[in-house]
Amino acid sequence: MVSRLNPYISFDGDARPAMEFYKEVFGGTLALNTFGESGAAGTPQADNIMHALLETPSGFTLMAADTPPGMEYSKGGNFSVSVSGDDEAELRGYWEKLSAGGTVSVPLEKQMWGDVFGMCTDRFGIPWMVDIVQAKA
């Protein structure tokens, strides 16, 4: 898997209809994962989207999620740039450089879905997500 760079949009509870709309616009394959499927079953957010991935025939990649509980939603400031792949050394190198002089909001560490993931805002105020995809067993 090569590393990829793409936008990641945050929504306030309407990620599912938004991503279904983008699928209608761009075509492609849409994968949706809910908070309930990721350990938050039985909560008010269980049906909200924890992660959405749209991959289009034109080579576009668009990711999105509903804003999780405890994080503030800010319309207009609701995007991040996501870098993901399986080359751990390469992605950790990006993380070190992007987070240097910036602010780390989620440390780069193993998450409940199995990947190593972190979020930071670089010294220029751009929000980044780095996801080191773990090999499927």
Automatic annotation (TrEMBL):
Task: Please list the residue ranges annotated as the Glyoxalase/fosfomycin resistance/dioxygenase domain.
Answer: 5-130
- SUPFAM superfamilies for the chain: Glyoxalase/Bleomycin resistance protein/Dihydroxybiphenyl dioxygenase
Read off the InterPro entries from this record: Glyas_Bleomycin-R_OHBP_Dase (IPR029068), Glyas_Fos-R_dOase_dom (IPR004360), PhnB-like (IPR028973)
- Do you know which Gene3D superfamilies this protein is assigned to? 2,3-Dihydroxybiphenyl 1,2-Dioxygenase, domain 1
Q: PANTHER family, from UniProt?
A: PROTEIN YJDN, PROTEIN YJDN-RELATED
The protein, known as = VOC family protein
Which species is the source of this protein? Streptomyces aurantiacus
